[in-house]
Automatic annotation (TrEMBL):
<dbReference type="Pfam" id="PF06628">
    <property type="entry name" value="Catalase-rel"/>
</dbReference>
<dbReference type="InterPro" id="IPR018028">
    <property type="entry name" value="Catalase"/>
</dbReference>
<dbReference type="GO" id="GO:0005739">
    <property type="term" value="C:mitochondrion"/>
</dbReference>
<dbReference type="GO" id="GO:0004096">
    <property type="term" value="F:catalase activity"/>
</dbReference>
<dbReference type="InterPro" id="IPR024711">
    <property type="entry name" value="Catalase_clade1/3"/>
</dbReference>
<dbReference type="Pfam" id="PF00199">
    <property type="entry name" value="Catalase"/>
</dbReference>
<feature type="domain" description="Catalase core">
    <location>
        <begin position="24"/>
        <end position="405"/>
    </location>
</feature>
<keyword id="KW-0349">Heme</keyword>
<keyword id="KW-0575">Peroxidase</keyword>
<dbReference type="InterPro" id="IPR020835">
    <property type="entry name" value="Catalase_sf"/>
</dbReference>
<keyword id="KW-0408">Iron</keyword>
<keyword id="KW-0560">Oxidoreductase</keyword>
<dbReference type="InterPro" id="IPR010582">
    <property type="entry name" value="Catalase_immune_responsive"/>
</dbReference>
<protein>
    <recommendedName>
        <fullName>Catalase core domain-containing protein</fullName>
    </recommendedName>
</protein>
<keyword id="KW-0376">Hydrogen peroxide</keyword>
<dbReference type="GO" id="GO:0005777">
    <property type="term" value="C:peroxisome"/>
</dbReference>
<keyword id="KW-0732">Signal</keyword>
Length: 495
């Protein structure tokens, strides 16, 4: 009875005393009672009918091509440790400083309406509304990504989403993709292990994945990876429990996030950095910019920098969560982004996606506006929303009429240019299997892999087995034994 997620409407009624006003059309005209019934009357003369019907059929916008399902909320980031010697972004300028944030958590593959307890990685996207504009970390709940080359993205989306012939998830395209890009196995071991189904977003960690280049006030470069560790601890669902939950409630993770915030139980994360100097980068024994790899914590320990707290639900989901537009290109002075090719590719992809999904003025949608700074851009017009559309300020640059001018920063720093090797990360996949997973987790990993690999074509099973054997002979042989023992037992099943 006291569940705010289930009782939102009842709570609305309780905080109001009777109807909140006279109903109107979208043009503001009061709706007369007779117009709420169209029988025996002319439809075209009924503005209520015309207005609501023609609007309803336009309510859907394109869903995100990936990460379509999500929960999200608002809150703040507070600096707890000084890092001004590393990074001059004003966001970090003093201990105790608070910056408003928006966060959105999302399985990658399922489509809108799908279950948020599917076995999958999760997006972990945070928008910091800083006084120097918005800074976005568009990360995952895994510390690594699947592949290094952004050219793979379209293939990845097609192979993992539904088969266009029958609109069904397809085991064969899934394993074909993975085995043709074997660098994906490192991340997939994590997703097929216990990390694949978080038990509530407040129990889910987040990682910026890319190694971001940052500069301090003197223009010296440093390199950082962002980590968000949930203060409530990491907790995950077992496959069987997730299956049960999802058959009853496809929105379990979204619901528990909403409910805990509405109940005043605010999820929080400790935000830390792995920090590398330019020398560390030069002397590293691995490519520290390789997104398919983790930076070992014993070599590059975590330095705490702050806390993120989510303490406010959206009042309207579509307006505030669906319309959020995150982008790796949203950077602020002092944070230059990742020098790797994947980061470069992403700077294009998100902007493109949001132009398509939300229109040319997506940054003028309130939830995307940099609320702590004044926007003085030369963009004008286009589809609404326009806000004040730059009022009467000159609309071209340079101009001789006091239009806005760029600032100068001689210490801004330039992104490193790096050479990227072909991916090769079986070593880290092996370390993950042997050193980081418990005996029980290894067994669950094998079981989860078998569920997915069992129904795949024989030649794909063989290709996958070869890779599992390279990662570790124990892993290979357990999966091989499982396949032999179970024959066709495993049906296609997203767990
Ligand atoms: C480190 C690798 C990556 C991470 C951590 C990542 C993470 C995410 C997250 C968290 C979202 C959902 C954002 C939201 O909540 O609105 C997202 C969406 C998206 N991602 Fe990625 N992604 C990665 C790689 C890529 C690559 C390589 C591309 C393409 C070149 C790409 C293209 C997209 C697109 C087009 C969207 C939808 C954006 C929108 O409609 O607003 N991503 N990604």
């Amino acid at each position: 009875k006291n569940d705010p997620a289930a009782n939102q409407l009842i709570m609305f009624k309780e905080k109001t005393s009777g109807p909140i006003g006279i109903m109107t059309t979208s043009a503001g005209a009061p709706v007369e009672h007779k117009d709420t019934n169209t029988l025996n009357s002319r439809l075209i003369f009924n503005e209520y009918f015309m207005d609501s019907l023609t609007h309803t059929v336009r309510e859907r916008i394109p869903e995100r091509v990936v990460h379509a399902v999500a929960g999200g909320a608002f809150g703040y980031f507070e600096v707890t440790h000084d890092i001004t010697h590393i990074c001059k972004a004003k966001l970090f300028s003093r201990v105790g400083k608070k910056t408003p944030v928006a966060a959105r958590f999302s399985p990658v593959v399922v489509e809108r309406g799908g279950s948020d307890t599917s076995r999958d990685a999760r997006g972990f996207a945070v928008k910091f509304y800083t006084e120097e504009g918005n800074f976005d970390i568009v990360g995952f709940n895994t510390p690594m990504f699947l592949y290094k080359d952004p050219v793979i993205f379209p293939t990845f989306v097609h192979a993992l989403k539904k088969n266009p012939a029958n609109n069904l998830f397809d085991t064969n395209s899934f394993w074909d993709f993975l085995t043709l890009q074997p660098e994906t196995f490192h991340m997939f071991l994590l997703v097929f292990g216990d990390r694949g189904i978080p038990d509530g977003y407040h129990h889910m960690p987040g990682f910026g994945i890319h190694t971001f280049e940052v500069v301090n006030g003197h223009g010296s470069k440093y390199f950082v990876r962002f980590h968000f560790v949930p203060d409530a601890g990491i907790k995950n669902l077992r496959s069987e429990d997730a299956k049960k939950i999802s058959s009853e409630d496809a929105d379990y993770n979204t619901r528990t996030l909403y409910r805990s915030i509405a109940n005043g139980d605010f999820p929080s994360w400790t935000v830390s950095l792995q920090i590398l100097s330019l020398d560390d980068v030069k002397n590293a024994r691995l490519d520290v910019f390789d997104v398919t790899k983790v930076l070992p914590l014993d070599e590059y320990p975590l330095h705490p920098v702050g806390k993120m707290v989510l303490n406010k639900n959206a009042v309207n989901y579509f307006a505030e969560i669906e319309q959020l537009a995150f982008s790796p290109g949203n950077l602020v002075p002092g944070i230059l982004g990742g020098p790797d090719k994947l980061f470069e590719g992403r700077r294009l992809a998100y902007r493109e996606a949001q132009h398509y999904r939300l229109g040319a003025n997506f940054n003028r949608i309130p939830v995307n506006c940099p609320i702590q700074t004044k926007v003085l851009e030369y963009n004008r017009d286009g589809v609404p929303p326009l806000k004040d559309n730059g009022k009467d300020i000159p609309n071209y640059y340079p101009n001789s009429f006091n239009g806005p001018v760029p600032y100068k920063d001689h210490k801004r720093g330039e992104l490193l240019q790096i050479f990227e090797e072909d991916p090769n990360n079986f070593e880290q996949a092996r370390e993950l299997y042997i050193n980081e997973m418990t005996k029980e987790e290894r067994s669950r990993l094998v079981e989860n892999v078998l569920y997915r690999l069992g129904p795949a074509a024989k030649f794909l099973q063989e290709r996958a087995l070869k890779i599992f054997y390279i990662i570790h002979p124990d892993l290979g042989s357990r999966i091989e034994q499982g396949l032999l023992a179970n024959g066709t037992k495993y049906d296609w099943n997203r767990y």
